[in-house]
Specification:
By secondary structure, the protein is an alpha/beta fold. The chain contains 9 helices and 9 strands.
């Protein structure tokens, strides 16, 4: 929200985030071209470096082949595919998205990459899973779309097992970020905000790293991660 005083008047301008239904409709509309978008921004390569830094792979290796991963707002599966590329053993992938058409894209893209995922149409604000169900819960460019990102983060942590890790990428302040915000009505989340949210959720080993999204976007995102204490 911004405000400006004009004499005795104060003018307030606020931006309303898109509703879940509006987001689903918009992503349904762009789903057919999303694979090209992912390639243009080199999403799979972009996510690999912060995933390696976060030590998510180490956590999953300790759990073993029964490890379960939830990708919230899975899109075409780029984040899950990036994670799988740095793992040395099998894991079980689950994914949700509000867009039915994006789930079709995720199924196709992940199968092409050799991955099988359990996919559901659902909202990250109300995940259809029991408490403490997953070893890693992650989301790429989802939280900044929502009217209450912290509520979504808490819901992600609800389904995270003790000792498990949460990993999220969000749009940061940049010229490209402004374009994204204008197109999708997203928030630009600062490093300080992201770290504070994770600490407010009583998480440990909080870390973050800028994410480079290819030459046409530059350093337009930040990856955050943390562990749920045992």
């Amino acid at each position: 929200m911004t405000s400006r005083r004009i004499g005795s008047w104060e003018v307030l301008i606020s931006r309303r985030p898109l509703s879940s239904a509006d987001l689903a409709s918009r992503y349904d509309a762009v789903s057919g071209s999303w694979e090209r978008t992912a390639r243009r921004f080199q999403l799979e390569a972009a996510y690999q470096e912060p995933l390696l830094t976060s030590q998510v792979a180490t956590v999953l290796k300790q759990v073993g082949p029964q490890a379960r991963i939830l990708d919230c707002g899975i899109g075409n599966g780029s984040l899950s595919i990036a994670l799988d590329s740095i793992l040395t053993g099998p894991v079980e992938y689950h994914g949700i998205d509000t867009s039915a058409e994006m789930l079709v894209q995720a199924s196709s893209t992940m199968q092409h990459a050799g991955l099988r995922a359990h996919l559901k149409q659902a909202d990250v604000l109300s995940l259809p899973y029991d408490d403490q169900s997953f070893d890693v819960v992650m989301a790429a460019h989802v939280l900044e779309h929502l009217p209450d990102p912290q509520r979504a983060l808490k819901e992600m942590i609800r389904v995270l097992k003790p000792g498990g890790m949460v990993f999220v990428c969000v749009t940061r302040h940049s010229l490209f970020g402004v374009l994204v915000q204008f197109r999708w009505r997203t928030w630009a989340i600062t490093e300080q905000q992201g770290v504070a949210w994770l600490h407010d959720c009583q998480l440990a080993d909080v870390g973050y790293q800028p994410v480079y999204l290819g030459s046409c976007a530059g350093v337009a995102s930040t990856a955050f991660w943390a562990r749920r204490p045992q």
